[in-house]
Predict the 3D structure of the following.
Amino acid sequence: VAFGLALTFRLAHSLVLPMKYFSTFLAVLTLNLANLAKGYEAMSVEVVQITREPHTHFFGYIGHVQNIPWNKSGRFIVALQSDFHDRMPGPNDPASVVLIDTENDYLVTAVDQSRGWNPQQGTMFYWNPAKPETQFFFNDRDIKTGKVFCVLYDIKLDKRVREYRFDDTPIGNGGVAQIGGWFLGLNYARMARLRPVTGYKGAWDWTEGEPHPRNDGLFRVDIQTGKKKLLVSFHQMANELKALGRNVKNSHLFINHSLSNREGDRIFFFARAGWSGQKGERINHPFIMTDKGENLRSNRIHIGGHPEWDYGHRMIGRVGDRQILFDTDQQLIAGTLGTPEIFPNPEGDIALSPNGKLFINGHKDRQNKKNFYTIYRREDGAYFRTKGFNIGHWQSGDLRQDPSPCWNRTSDQILVPGVSKNGKTRQLFILKLNQ
């Protein structure tokens, strides 16, 4: 009881909840505390390594907003294969685009190559929601011009069926709408300058030297027609930030974590600046708008660096030491998930399962040089923490090994990365859930 009262006081203080919402919050907290004792008993996990040396294999990005490595039937997992992982790739360092056959002893087959990739995000793989059995997206760049573009590949036809090239504003895929029909476009060359871990080194940038360009920002590309639209420019973002009293004169803005919600009518993103040793004020500002780029506004509460969309207009994120639910319409904290004991780092890499019933948080234990994963069942608060996955000395910096967990389509398997024991490669593992 003393623990519960102390935790209640600490949470209420850290979240600064209005009194009229406190009773609802307290009920949610009481339920979480009651379920805390269930712990590991209701869930178990089997770990299967699916790739091996001599090459490095990885998917890349966090599996939030239903970024799923498996195709519709679950037979194939799409991934990248590289001969190195100890430096950032340049234009002359293509990675192989591979399919991993889950019905044939995880046989790895190369089907194409990408020159638009990095260790943290891979090449922004997404299966096409309109044809999730056979088609997926990935990023590439023109070897002659250095211009980035997005590719749509069909595994049945064994070829690229479309390339989304824009000579004036060469952008790559920054996230496919969960309902399909469009993807968000980003300038990966700009990111390579301003935050190298998320960009493509040596790509052609039409905005070099401009802190707040009017012709760059967050784009939307229609998958069927190939037409693009600039939803919001860096110039618009700068004006919004100025209105909030931020000094952005010398801050070169860029975008990270462009995320569309499950219903496809909201987009979240971070406008950032001053990272990776860049000049100007450091900015890490959350914006939200409609899928058409309308009603751009700031989140009143910063909910951490790796948020995820729940159903509707709610997001999952972090405030203080808690994993929280945030209502983006009301701009209020609507509840919590678990406790600080269940989620030691609520700002880890997080992903909600496709069926919405399970939630995973991957966090780093720097002292033990491992990534751990906590799988949480929302219905009753049962959870399971996996064994640690080796990350060696790749704990921070542009080459760090992030947890980046990715769900399958049936919400019972999770793809995760790990560094080999000898530290020479990075490989893929599947967590198989038993409930």
